[in-house]
């Protein structure tokens, strides 16, 4: 290779010197860091919570805490479902056993507020067919302490007791089963995703050595993030669900970043560069793109910090940590490994046997993507309209979305706590979880005022009955005088009032009932809580903060893409097209998980709604990942446009160079997300499968069809920016490649563009899928035979 054919810039920058000066030491430090992370992150799941969907500053959160303290029986989190078999719960033997169980439970440490059907005679604690009854109690302490107490208590009550059979349920049991199920499912997902990912990486690279590098970066990112989350649990609540995102993004983004770094390094070797200049060129180009991508993804995930629910904030903690650690490993540890490996990065060709005897395919690597780009740009209006219409149509089901709260139906139908709550929903006139609990406080909480208030609330059309210290009310009148149970609803100037709705716990009528109750103006202060009240407050909280989160994502994306491209229009296009790429995901979420289609094959129980915080989470994650691929495509288009000044050729070049690689990266990330989607927990299943769909739609439809069509329609105006912004980009902007813009360079123009504008590209080609379109394996079109990679470069050399 002559000097004229060498890469135009062999400068070794300060960052390259820093990360490659002592490569063995760098790898040793990374190994020590990983070992320490294993120790620091051990047991992190045991310290995580399985709730966090509520706004801690809301009215319902205040009322819940106050009622827990003053009236623990009003907030039961433990339920013993007592089945009387062939007898009724009023049978003397069954009643005696029920009272004995309740007495035993009240003697347990950390248990308070024990109540039962046999003590109160409350209709809500007895099944309509009189075959089952409830013993309810509250286990004190936070989620961790309550879970440990449940583990100690439950075995002594579960199973046969004389004439009855007992099953254990309640929210503390639901959360305990969620936590253990997620941990088991996460391990299974990793066992599924890792070997498949390794096989796909071998197919992409053709080399087992190159394939192991992205996996190594991913493992460092996952273990490092576990350690970060373990540290955060000392200061704040962290959701156990965040571990799923750690695994998914740790593998997915690490593989994305390593794919582009290793691909560019092999490309530089194929051009004849020595390993140190090859690493330098890689970090100046692909390295900068990785940095931009990581910042964009981190910004999308950081937007969840504006929400008060620790469920969402936990995903921000995990996402930001895993993105930054993955990018750091790709930009620090990976270059050190590449320096030590050199040409051996192409060793252990495991695909040679598959190619033996197969005739080599002709054509230039990436030619298929180039043909697609030309076809799309020739019919740009048709492709743009058809693609937009198709994506909008796929998203239409989201218009009928119903928001709800996460409950026991997140668990598989075989889970004990799910079965208990399902029996209560189907067989009881009103369970402890469906009521609206009202805390009355102040000097006006006298018996007469409470009676008037209770009668007024009971007259509302959505109300079945009201239980208060003044008695039991229905249809606006007193139906039962106060007894010992009602007297217990008074405590030091405060009272507890239970409003039992006629409908479901979180349907529209129950939510309207909460608003109606809060609109009342009695002589005392009231605060409402319960499942419906929590949902109302959560929806209001999300709606209040969603504009701020969207503004953060849009502003940071616009800024970073502008710094990458120097264009005003491209950042706007990027935001709009990325948002459009998510429509299929949101439409599928409603069609599948709300409407219940495919519930059988996917093994989940539909609740008829979508948990309120989940669309926010899915948007932030999927938008960030979409920008990840968008940055890689735009950086190559920008590089070629700067070099030739030919807009259409630059779009074709970018798609030819990145189309196959982005598709391979998206496929690998989708495999990881589908592995997460095999979870038995519905929200985790929805998260994994939904984001897998969004990633594939973005990589294959938006990047392959919509981006080239839109960029063709906008033409050279795509790159316009006013003078002050051009000067800002000249000073602060960075992009993949450091070529002088073509319009500022003497001798550039149509001649170069007419021939594709890239002699090196005709030698080394782009990505035509896992093995290129010329039969040469590897996404960079480099044929690998032992260590002499750069002596045998792709077709057309």
Automatic annotation (TrEMBL):
The keyword Cell membrane applies. Signal peptide: none annotated. Residues 737-797 are annotated as: Disordered. It comes from the Bacteria. It is a multi-pass membrane protein. The chain crosses the membrane at residues 25-45, 192-221, 241-262, 290-311, 317-342, 380-399, 548-570, 575-594, 614-634, 661-681, 687-706. It is found in: Cell membrane. Residues 55-380, 411-723 form the Membrane transport protein MMPL domain. Keywords: Cell membrane, Membrane, Transmembrane, Transmembrane helix. Residues 759-797 have a biased composition (Basic and acidic residues). InterPro entries: MMPL_dom (IPR004869), Mycobact_MmpL (IPR050545). Belongs to the resistance-nodulation-cell division (RND) (TC 2.A.6) family. MmpL subfamily. This is MMPL family transporter.
């Amino acid at each position: 290779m002559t000097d004229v054919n060498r890469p135009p810039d062999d400068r070794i920058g300060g960052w390259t010197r820093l990360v490659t000066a002592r490569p063995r030491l760098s790898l040793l430090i990374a190994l020590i860091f990983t070992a320490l992370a294993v120790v620091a992150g051990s047991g992190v799941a045991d310290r995580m919570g399985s709730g966090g969907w509520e706004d801690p500053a809301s009215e319902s959160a205040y009322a819940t805490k106050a009622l827990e303290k003053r009236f623990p029986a009003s907030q039961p989190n433990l339920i013993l479902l007592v089945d009387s078999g062939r007898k009724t719960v009023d049978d003397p033997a069954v009643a005696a056993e029920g009272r004995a169980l309740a007495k035993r439970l009240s003697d347990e440490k950390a248990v308070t507020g024990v109540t039962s059907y046999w003590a109160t005679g409350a209709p809500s604690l007895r099944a309509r067919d009189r075959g089952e009854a409830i013993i309810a109690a509250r286990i004190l302490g936070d989620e961790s302490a309550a879970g440990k107490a449940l583990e100690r208590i439950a075995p002594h009550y579960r199973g046969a007791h004389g004439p009855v059979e007992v099953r254990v349920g309640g929210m503390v049991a639901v959360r305990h089963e969620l936590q253990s199920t997620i941990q088991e499912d996460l391990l299974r997902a990793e066992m599924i995703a890792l070997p498949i990912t390794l096989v796909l990486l071998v197919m992409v690279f053709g080399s087992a050595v190159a394939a192991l590098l992205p996996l190594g970066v991913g493992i460092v990112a996952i273990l490092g993030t576990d350690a970060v989350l373990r540290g955060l649990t000392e200061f704040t609540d962290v959701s156990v669900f965040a571990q799923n995102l750690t695994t998914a993004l740790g593998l997915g983004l690490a593989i994305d970043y390593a794919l582009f770094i290793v691909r560019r390094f092999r490309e530089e070797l194929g051009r004849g560069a020595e390993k140190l200049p090859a690493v330098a060129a890689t970090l100046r180009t692909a390295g900068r793109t990785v940095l931009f991508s990581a910042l964009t993804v981190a910004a999308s995930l950081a937007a969840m910090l504006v929400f008060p629910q620790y469920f969402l904030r936990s995903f921000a903690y995990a996402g930001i940590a895993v993105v930054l650690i993955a990018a750091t490993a790709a930009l620090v540890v990976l270059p050190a490994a590449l320096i030590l490996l050199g040409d051996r990065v192409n060793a252990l060709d495991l695909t040679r046997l598959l190619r033996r005897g197969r005739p080599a395919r002709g054509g230039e690597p990436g030619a298929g993507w180039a043909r697609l780009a030309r076809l799309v740009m020739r019919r740009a209006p048709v492709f743009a309209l058809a693609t937009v219409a198709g994506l909008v149509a796929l998203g239409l089901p989201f218009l009928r979305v119903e928001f709800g709260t996460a409950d026991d139906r997140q668990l598989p139908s075989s889970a004990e706590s799910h079965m208990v709550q399902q029996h209560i929903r189907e067989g009881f006139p009103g369970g402890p979880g469906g009521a609206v609990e009202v805390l009355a406080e102040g000097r006006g909480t006298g018996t007469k005022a409470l009676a008037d208030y209770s009668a007024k609330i009971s007259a509302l059309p959505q109300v079945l009955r009201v239980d208060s210290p003044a008695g039991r009310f229905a249809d606006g009148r007193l139906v039962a005088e106060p007894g010992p149970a009602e007297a217990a609803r008074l405590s030091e100037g405060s009272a507890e009032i239970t409003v039992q709705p006629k409908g479901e716990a979180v349907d529209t009528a129950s939510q309207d009932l909460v608003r109606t109750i809060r609109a009342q103006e009695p002589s005392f202060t009231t605060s409402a809580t319960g499942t419906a009240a929590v949902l109302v407050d959560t929806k209001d909280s999300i709606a209040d903060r969603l504009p701020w989160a969207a503004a953060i994502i849009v502003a940071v994306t616009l800024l970073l893409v502008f710094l990458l491209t120097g264009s005003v229009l491209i950042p706007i296009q990027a935001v709009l097209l990325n948002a459009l790429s998510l429509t299929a995901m949101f439409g599928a979420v409603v069609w599948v998980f709300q409407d219940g289609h495919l519930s059988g094959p996917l093994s989940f129980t539909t609740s008829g709604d979508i948990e309120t915080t989940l669309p926010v989470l899915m948007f932030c994650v999927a938008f960030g990942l979409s920008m990840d691929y968008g940055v890689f495509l735009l950086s190559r288009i920008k590089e070629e446009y700067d070099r030739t000044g030919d807009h259409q050729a630059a779009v074709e070049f970018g798609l030819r160079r990145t189309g196959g690689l982005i598709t391979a990266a998206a496929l690998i990330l989708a495999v990881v997300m589908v592995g997460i989607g095999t979870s038995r927990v519905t929200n985790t299943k929805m998260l994994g499968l939904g984001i897998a769909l969004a990633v594939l739609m973005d990589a294959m439809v938006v990047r392959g069809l919509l981006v080239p069509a839109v960029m063709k329609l906008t033409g050279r105006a795509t790159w316009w920016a006013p003078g002050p912004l051009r000067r800002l980009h000249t000073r602060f902007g960075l992009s993949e490649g450091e070529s002088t813009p073509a319009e500022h360079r003497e001798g550039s123009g149509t001649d170069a563009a007419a021939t594709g504008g890239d002699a090196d590209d005709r030698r080394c080609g782009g990505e035509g899928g896992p093995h290129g379109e010329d039969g040469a394996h590897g996404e960079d079109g480099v044929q690998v035979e032992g260590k002499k990679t750069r002596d045998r470069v792709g077709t057309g050399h």
